[in-house]
Each structure stands twice: as C-alpha cells, then as structure tokens.
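Is this the right way to post structure tokens for a design question? Let me know if I should format differently. Anyway, here goes:
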C-alpha cells in the first residue's frame, strides 16, 4: 500500500497503472474509518484491479457553526486498517493541496440544484455544494472507472449520481448497502462522538425504520400514517431530538403522493446531544 500526499504524485502513480490496462476503483472518505468504509473498499477490490481511498476532511461542506474542528481524525489508525484490507493507494492530502490558497475555499463550486437544497440540504445550506465540489475535484484527480458510496448517505449518493450524469463524467457511481452495528445502528464516524447514553438511545433509529417496514408489509400505504408512526416511535426516546422525518420517492427524492404506489425511501435525521445522525430505509412492498 502506498500513502500519497500530493495530486501530482497520485496522478503519476495511477497513470502507470492505467498504462498497464488496470481499472481503477475509488472510495472517497473523510477518514476515521469503520467497517462500512472497509466494505466499500472490499467492493472496489471485487470490481476493479486497483483501489484508491482518499482521506480528506473537506472544509467546504461544513458551515461556520458546524463541527469541522471536532470531526474525528486518526490517520495512523486508518492507514493500518486499509493496509490490512489490502488497499493499493491512500490519497491523504492536506487542505493546502486541495485548496491551494489555504483558505479551504474555492471560487468555483459544483451545485446540483434543487436536489442539493431539499431535505438535508435545507438543514445544512451549501453542504451538498461542498460535497459535489470536492467529489468532482477528486474524480478529476483520480479519474476512476468506478466510485463506491454508502447508501446510508442516500441524498449524497443521489447528488453525486446527478452530478456525474449532468457533467458527463466518465465514472460509474456504485451505491453499497448500509453496514450496521449488531443492534442495527448504521456505522458512522459520528457514532464515536456519542456519549454512552446517547449511543444506547440511538438504536431507536433502526427500530423506527423497522416499524415502518412492518406497517408496509401489513398493507399500510398512507404516507401520513407511516410518518406519524415513525415520529411517535422516535419521540419515545427522550434523548433524541427529531430534525426531519421524510418519505420520498426512492429514485428521485421527489415528494410522494398521499398513498404509496411504488418503493419510497424513509429518511431520518435525529440529533443526540451535539451529534446529528442520519439514516435511511427503502420501503419495499411484498406484493
């Protein structure tokens, strides 16, 4: 495994790989890796000859009042995990490498339009603009054949797919099923920021999603009824502060009709203390 710090060095290394006919798989991360990230790497290894993981905490997707400074970081730990996984290249640039003026900002941004402004985009204005911008920069640097993203960040995945389609970027964006802890909580770097009490309480998220799926399995199709049941379940956990409960079209994230007629995605945003957790579940019909 090679650790590379500069854009020029990475381009040189990957140019040599491509000259040998190797396909490139890419997993962009912000580090503090967990089994979910390693599952993305495993998918890359299964589908591509060479796997690249980036580790970069991107400042342009954080608002001034958000937790950029507190975001967990442990590069030596991450490198050990990736080496054990058999990763080929790790690209870990500093802020000055990605944003040369040192400000962590850029004059040019990628904006995915309405898809970036709804749901989480309404709670975090400009967040997805920062995500799309840095992912586009990374795609330009790595030039991967395939890029792998977790489905837990459902809206982010939709934004990246829209960006790639709209900008004709030659990348196959692959969504990978959410990896969960034994109690059902989605793996996330932010889980490490939870207190022991909040970590125990956070299991209400997968429980609420399972409740919604059970109701759908029993024939419930009313969006209002499903949302009410989910909110009621979440409110049973006093440590959680509900920020959003949305049921949207699974393909477009458009608002659904009053009655479900096709698979829809349930999107949850709940804050525990200072830590915001998100999760998703696609509500599918048995018949």
């Amino acid at each position: 495994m090679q650790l590379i710090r500069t854009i020029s060095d990475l381009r040189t290394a990957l140019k040599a790989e491509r000259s040998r006919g190797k396909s490139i798989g890419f997993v962009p991360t912000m580090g503090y890796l967990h089994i979910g990230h390693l599952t993305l790497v495993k998918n890359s290894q299964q589908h591509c000859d060479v796997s690249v993981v980036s580790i970069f905490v991107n400042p342009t997707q954080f608002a001034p009042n958000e937790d950029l400074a507190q975001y967990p970081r442990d590069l030596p730990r991450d490198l050990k995990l990736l080496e054990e996984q058999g990763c080929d290249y790790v690209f870990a640039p500093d802020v000055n490498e990605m944003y040369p003026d040192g400000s962590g900002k850029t004059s040019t941004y990628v904006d995915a339009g309405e898809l970036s402004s709804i749901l989480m985009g309404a709670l975090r204005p400009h967040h997805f603009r920062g995500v799309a911008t840095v992912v586009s920069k990374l795609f330009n640097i790595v030039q991967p054949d395939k890029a792998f993203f977790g489905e837990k960040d459902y809206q982010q995945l939709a934004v990246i797919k829209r960006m790639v389609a709209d900008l004709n970027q030659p990348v196959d964006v692959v969504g990978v099923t959410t990896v969960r802890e034994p109690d059902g909580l989605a793996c996330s770097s932010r889980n490490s920021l939870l207190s022991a009490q909040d970590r125990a309480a956070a299991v209400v998220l997968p429980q609420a999603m399972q409740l919604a799926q059970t109701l759908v399995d029993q024939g419930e199709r009313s969006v209002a009824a499903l949302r009410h049941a989910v909110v009621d379940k979440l409110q049973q956990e006093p440590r959680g502060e509900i920020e959003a409960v949305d049921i949207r079209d699974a393909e477009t994230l458009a608002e659904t009709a009053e009655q479900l007629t096709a698979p829809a995605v349930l999107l949850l945003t709940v804050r525990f203390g200072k830590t915001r957790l998100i999760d998703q579940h696609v509500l599918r019909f048995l018949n």
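Format looks fine. Someone answered above. Worth noting: The CA atoms of residues 208 and 232 lie 9 Å apart. DSSP finds eleven helices and nine strands in the chain.
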